[in-house]
């Protein structure tokens, strides 16, 4: 699993997991009741983690695309080493955190009395006001749109078009060996998987980004009764991207599927190996040998 692509794939899974754990449930609760019960500190954490995880996910997809592009279109060029991949991951998270700094500076809560109830809202209070009147927030949304959506999607579309032309369009002179054919087939499967990931990403996030741009230029829409429900549907479409990606990896990546099953199997082996009689009088050598035998039985055959 220690290839550059798998380093990035694990990082992509981590960013998706952060979004799922720290944002989805909390924001769903907030939007259903229009009330933020989690406090001002978590309001800041929630907004910061959301933007960091989205940016890290997109930047990782770009890194994967560039790595695949060099491997397929320019195979004779110097490939990315594992050390450089780790450095790239540090840069990805640093850039993502830098992009999300306004969330740390301006996220806050405010209580207001409406329809006989006190409701708390979690929002970003910019120096020139709040959404949708704040020009600063509009500029930030445009920058975020450009850096985490439009720019990456266009760049990745160009790269995968060139990769597709190389893998499916080019004709090699003479006969190819079975090893070469298997290598091309393997590369095609990886490219198909990431094209699927990027396409679903573009579809999931387009309505969400478009909503903020449209409402800023049509402020009367923001007070309409149907807008909260519309925003909720756009938001959950965007958040679903983090939940769909692992399914795509499992469905389209054989290695991911094999290692996922092995991890699950090993976890089950550890639980079942700790019998009560072993816990009352532990024998370390016996436990280790039993775990070793069970872990070997969990390995995929063939």
TrEMBL record:
| Single GO term (MF) | tachykinin receptor activity
Q: Where are the transmembrane segments?
A: 7-28, 48-66, 87-107, 139-163, 193-214, 234-252
The main place the protein resides is membrane
A UniProt-annotated Pfam family: 7tm_1
Q: Where in the cell is it found?
A: Cell membrane
- InterPro entries to which the protein is assigned, alphabetical: GPCR_Rhodpsn, GPCR_Rhodpsn_7TM, Neurokn_rcpt, NPY_rcpt
Record key words, sorted? Cell membrane, G-protein coupled receptor, Membrane, Receptor, Transducer, Transmembrane, Transmembrane helix
The way it spans or sits in the membrane comes to:
Multi-pass membrane protein
Q: Which cellular component terms (GO) are annotated to the entry?
A: plasma membrane
Gene3D superfamilies (alphabetical) = Rhodopsin 7-helix transmembrane proteins
Give the family, as the similarity comment puts it.
Belongs to the G-protein coupled receptor 1 family.
Q: What is this protein called?
A: G-protein coupled receptors family 1 profile domain-containing protein
